[in-house]
Design brief:
By secondary structure, this protein is α/β, with parallel strands linked by helices. It folds into three domains: about 1-35 and about 210-295 and about 415-479, FAD/NAD(P)-binding domain (3-Layer(bba) Sandwich), CATH 3.50.50.60; about 100-205; about 305-400, Polyamine Oxidase, Chain A, domain 2 (Alpha-Beta Complex), CATH 3.90.660.50. The chain is built from 16 helices and 20 strands. α1 runs parallel beside α15 and α15 (about 440-455) runs antiparallel to α16. The structure holds flavin-adenine dinucleotide (FAD).
């Protein structure tokens, strides 16, 4: 059966991949001339890649890890030492580490926390344990109920002091959803903490060995097209055309560069576009339906990614760093962490600026200058002296609406992949799955959508068998 999919981000590509596995023929329509959506990357005039965002893969991402295996590209994930490294703003240029020993979970996490004495006093550790441990033990059902609180509110209710929040959770909150603990839903941090503390390698991190567009999205497209599917760039979904009964008659594709608009007909249709453009494109009869009205509660959050090339090495650290700056979130020297960008002589820093609401409309030059000022605190040995490091070039990528802003009450608004329209489905990291707005969430949402469609279309014995295989893989991954 033919399935039309709008959006070639990880969710759209993952749904197409798993639909081909179940014997169907997907046609993916992407509005831009680049694959990957929020993981998209471009080559500049010098042949250097620049990305939409610094992306980290975690041990607690079963569906992504399985996808890499299925594509035969596992070796592209570069696993780092199991540690979390934080800058110490009060001692510029120094770091505090949480090193996870080779012990089963949760003991490795507990030891990592107990051994760190720079960021938490013994009193704070006790306070934190008293607040967090019961929440961890009470399970995901309890965690889901905390969606009525911001993380700050929840910590306060648990009797955890403001200092602990300042020390660790601002950095964690910014890295997970590009906002601060006084805005983010408690669900996000508690879900992440559960995954990190319950699985031995849950918080272990990997970098891709190059740009996600080339090293992850292209193999997905090869896999899809080798099995009869199609991926079309510069093919924006303009309108969802309806039959009289309110089901989908076709996807209207906007003709670009003077070409005519075109209608694509299929047996089933998927929107894998972000929630913000979906709300704009929803056919008016659907806008009255409660299922789609809830989407109003979801909105993409702004974020900015910078890549800066320097004339020298600023650090040898081969890991993600939590800046603990009010301007920046996480960063990494990609010349150390990523073999595709390796350079033994010069650093290439990739940094995430968040929260970005006050910066998203500023010029690239203004964003660069404020970031450089921040680097004086992160790398005091290389800036602000007689012979400061020289910036060779830079790229700033602004995303005014990225992943959904996970504020309290959002869980209730996240839709299932199946909609009330029998031949129309949703995929995207904003749709309901347990991995929130992440690459893992996007891939899992695509898999769940493919599963729902394969169930509905159920085409003959052999693909039913493949569908069962897909279903058991999904069950394993979501258990
Ligand atoms: C700066 C940054 C850092 C991040 N870091 C991490 C990280 O470290 N780890 C992690 O797990 N996640 C991270 N994420 C989140 C992760 O990138 C996303 O959750 C995931 O990629 C979302 O995938 P998606 O397919 O749901 O949506 P998207 O990637 O938004 O894909 C939607 C696609 O639809 C296309 N589209 C839009 N309108 C139309 C239309 N009308 N017709 C056709 N196509 C259309 C878009 O162009 C896009 O390609 C980060 C995100 C950002 C921005």
């Amino acid at each position: 059966m033919r399935v039309a999919i709008a959006g070639a981000g990880l969710a759209g590509l993952s749904s197409a991949k798993y639909l081909t596995d179940a014997g169907h023929t997907p046609v993916v329509l992407e509005s831009r001339d680049v694959l990957g959506g929020l993981v998209a990357a471009w080559k500049d005039a010098d042949g250097d890649w620049y990305e939409t965002g610094l992306h980290i893969f975690f041990g607690a991402y079963p569906n992504i890890l399985q996808l890499f295996k299925e594509l035969g590209i596992e070796d592209r994930l570069q696993w780092k030492q199991h540690t979390m490294i934080f800058n110490q703003p009060e001692k510029p240029g120094t770091y505090s580490r949480f090193d996870f020993p080779d012990l089963p979970a949760p003991f490795n996490g507990i030891v990592a926390i107990l051994r760190n004495n720079d960021m938490l006093t013994w009193g704070e550790k006790l306070q934190l344990a008293k607040g967090l441990v019961p929440a961890m033990l009470r399970g995901q059902k309890y965690v889901e109920q905390t969606d009525k609180y911001t993380f700050s509110e929840w910590l306060k209710r648990q009797g955890v002091s403001e200092e602990v929040q300042q020390d660790i959770f601002i950095a964690a909150s910014k890295s997970l959803n590009f906002i601060n603990p006084d805005e983010i839903s408690a669900v996000v941090l508690l879900t992440a903490l559960r995954a990190f503390l319950q699985e031995k390698n849950g918080s272990k991190m990997a970098f891709l060995d190059g740009s996600p567009t080339e090293r992850l999205c292209s193999p997905l497209v090869d896999y899809i097209t080798a099995r009869g599917g199609e991926v079309r760039l510069k093919a924006p979904l303009k309108e969802i055309l309806l039959n009289e009964d309110g089901t989908v008659r076709g996807f209207l594709i906007r003709g670009l560069d003077g070409a005519e608009d075109e209608v694509l007909k299929a047996d089933a249709y998927i929107s894998a576009i972000p929630v913000d453009p979906l709300k704009v494109i929803l056919p008016s009869p659907w806008q009255q339906m409660e299922f789609f009205q809830k989407l109003e509660g979801l909105e993409g959050v702004p974020v900015i990614n910078l890549q800066l090339w320097f004339d020298r090495k600023l650090t040898e650290i081969d890991q993600l760093l939590f800046s603990r700056s009010s301007l920046l979130s996480v960063y990494a020297d990609m010349s150390n962490t990523c073999s595709g960008y390796a350079d033994p002589e010069r650093s290439m820093l990739e940094l995430v600026l968040a929260p970005a609401k006050d910066w998203i409309s500023k010029s690239d030059e203004e964003i660069l200058q404020i970031t450089l000022a921040e680097l004086e605190k992160l790398f005091p040995a290389h800036f602000g002296q007689d012979n400061p490091a020289k910036l060779l070039k830079y790229h700033v990528v602004k995303t005014p609406r990225s992943v959904y802003k996970a504020i309290p009450g959002c869980q209730e608004c996240r839709p299932s992949q199946k909609t009330p329209i029998p031949n129309f489905y949703l995929a995207g990291s904003y749709t309901m799955q347990r991995y929130l707005g992440s690459m893992e969430g996007a891939v899992l949402s695509g898999k769940l959508t493919a599963q729902a469609i394969a169930e509905a279309l159920s085409v003959g014995n052999s693909s039913s068998l493949q569908m069962q295989t897909l279903q058991s893989a999904t069950n394993a991954a979501t258990a």
